[in-house]
């Protein structure tokens, strides 16, 4: 998507919002805004999310697929790690499960929410959503392995108490997660890149319809958008942190479990990817939407867990990664349904709705466990 050339650059909100949101973030941190003043950071948080989506699309259009899908997934996840670590440094025992809750929420939101929404929107126009089963299946297998290794097994090991890994176990899980993530990225971008490109849709006459592409943006525009994308993401996560005391207070006042805080963090951080995936699905580019969903889920585990494993050297808060029984059941049925969705390489509105219902069940049971 090329930059809008019909108005002066200084009037383009996509160029103005990221630095403005960063200024609001700095002012909010310096003045320690509270009460109704938090409405201002919240407004700029939403504007920064929309700006991040725009600039991610510009960069993705320039570099092409599947590299474009990696840009937003990796950038958001790196900043997500920073937010988790920051909150854990300032918290106590209540934050010991924050990483688990946030990462698990990210998996459920991506595999059920983003994937389900994308399949539903793509199938509205053409009745079926078409994608490459080879690439999406490999991605889902990697996500499932990472989730079980990092989030399920700690609940069953006996070397450390309370759903924790021992030091050596955490080190092994971190290395294994990083290796799987790196190998998947190499597979996606080098060895089997064609598995992750949009699948061709055949017309009623049996001919393959070529995809129409607009001219890619210039190199200069791409670099500007990359810088503004990173600025937007920093602003999004920073403003989310500014809003986090109000979120935690609201959760406590409503009598909801602390796990809801992790869900809210994941929803905020993954909002740019959700919007980008929905836009791609409406353009009948389902594979790009699934690349975003699976890539985000994979990065949320494959980058977050190794980073937190290193951070535990300095963190006094224990790192409890093991899921509870209800969460394990939800993860199991999510992976099972995901396999049945991916294998045919085609999906309908029913398939998308099934995933969205699973997301709704996760959100409901997070509030009412």
TrEMBL record:
Location of the protein in the cell: Membrane
Gene Ontology terms: cellular component: plasma membrane
The way it spans or sits in the membrane comes to: Multi-pass membrane protein
Q: Which PANTHER family match?
A: SODIUM-POTASSIUM/PROTON ANTIPORTER CHAA, SODIUM-POTASSIUM_PROTON ANTIPORTER CHAA
Q: What is this protein called?
A: Sodium/calcium exchanger membrane region domain-containing protein
Q: Which organism is it from?
A: Rhynchospora breviuscula
Bilayer-crossing residues are 20-50, 70-91, 103-124, 136-156, 168-186, 219-239, 259-278, 290-315, 321-343, 350-367
Q: Which residues form the Sodium/calcium exchanger membrane region domain?
A: 36-189, 225-367
Molecular function as annotated in GO? potassium:proton antiporter activity; sodium:proton antiporter activity
Tell me which UniProt keywords the record has, alphabetically: Membrane, Transmembrane, Transmembrane helix
Q: Give the matching InterPro entries.
A: Alkaline_pH_Ca-Antiporter (IPR052946), NaCa_Exmemb (IPR004837)
